[in-house]
What we know:
By secondary structure, this protein is α/β, with parallel strands linked by helices. The protein is 48% helix and 13% strand. It has 17 helices and 10 strands. It has helices spanning 9-14, 30-40, 50-60, 66-71, 73-78, 83-99, 121-141, 161-170, 194-202, 217-226, 253-260, 269-274, 286-291, 303-306, 310-321, 325-337, 343-362, and strands spanning 17-23, 102-109, 147-155, 176-182, 208-211, 231-234, 242-243, 250-251, 265-267, 296-298.
Amino acid sequence: MSLTNTPSVAQIKRVPKVMLHDHLDGGLRPQTIIDIAKEIGYSALPTQDAAELATWFRESCDSGSLVRYLETFSHTIAVMQRREDIIRVARECALDLARDGVVYAEVRGAPELFTEKGLSMSQVVEATLEGYKQGVAQAKEEGFEIQVYSLLCGMRQNKRSQEVAELVVKYRDKGVVGFDIAGPEDGFPPSDQKETFDYLRKEDAHFTIHAGEAYGLPSIWEAIQLCGAERLGHGVRIIDDIDFSGPEPVLGQLASYVRDRRIPLELCPTSNLQTGAAKSYAEHPIGALARLRFRVTLNTDNRLMSQTSLSFEMQEAVKAFGWDFAELQRVTINAMKSAFIPYPARLKIIESIIKPGYAKISAEK
């Protein structure tokens, strides 16, 4: 069966997908925000209409500024301060991903952001895991199979990363599979958190690091060489270490290291367009990086802020780069290979779900 034909929109919706970079507080349903805001008396929303609110988030994030992009989170964080609200958001997240064809997801969130009304960070983690559990069960009732795990983020501008890292170790057999640092890159290099990353390595815990999104190659170098990142959250600026001026691209030392060591890039094209990494999807570095056989993965980052889904990202990649089923399967397997669950479990999903799923759907007339 050939995987070289062009997938249709309907086929893309159905192919098995893997998500490594998706923020829980960046993927709320607009109506959920409105519902919870009414319940808690939060009056700062720009509109009470779900469609208008979705548009407002997207337009506010189209500024080209990561700083302004991050400011929109004040609304989503405000409605995620009660246990029941965190459970609802996590449940809906798992269900929405499953309906989009995602079979495996690692969704990240910073527990410290949801403690403003008295919850402890442990309670936040437990509520999140409970929500995923409910969402997975509901998805199964609808005929969808999905596994959802949690990544816990420390905010790089704050001083609580060590606490969060200890929660990763505490809950790693209960649904938490890794650690990350998030927030503004410029002025807050990964090396500021080096002691925390050293602790995680001593505990044999997995971690990814947001790097190479708004800041350049030094951020990537620090994340890998000083801190030991297993994956790069975004990492899109690695393109700056590749010379395209000649007949063949020439990789610099860092780019060669990233490619040769098969360090996964958690690329989020639509989000990157909003924060200024590229002017159009066709100009996004993911096309060139995939051709050069970096370990490219495709992700959404913040589904609400970007009005996106993994199906949409795949559709845009097909249009922009001419990707066929084989290329979509490659980035999906790349992601599954790079997941933070044990290797046998990764291999099982690849062999029993992803490869058969792509073969079946691509063979359809």
